[in-house]
Write a structure and sequence with these properties.
By secondary structure, the protein is an alpha+beta fold. It has helices at about 10-15, 40-45, 50-60, and strands spanning about 15, 20-25, 45-50. It has a single domain (about 10-60), classed as Factor Xa Inhibitor (Irregular), CATH 4.10.410. It has a three-stranded antiparallel β-sheet with strand order 1-2-3.
């Protein structure tokens, strides 16, 4: 049986930390930034870590 292919779309959107956590960026900063408040832009610019139950799904799609 051949190896599973890595989902390239997910591989470009997530990063893995040294401890195995999945780091992603918030959605909503692609365009229309001027109409968002400064607080909202600062919040959306920061990365965050996925929840444990979501990590399992992502790790199946992306080989580390």
């Amino acid at each position: 049986m051949p190896k599973m292919k890595t989902s390239r779309t997910m591989a470009k959107r997530v990063k893995f930390t040294g401890t195995g956590k999945v780091k992603v960026h918030h959605a909503g900063m692609g365009h229309l930034a001027p109409r968002k408040t400064r607080k909202q832009r600062k919040h959306l610019a920061q990365a965050y870590y996925l929840a444990k139950h979501d990590e399992r799904t992502i790790k199946e799609w992306v080989s580390k």
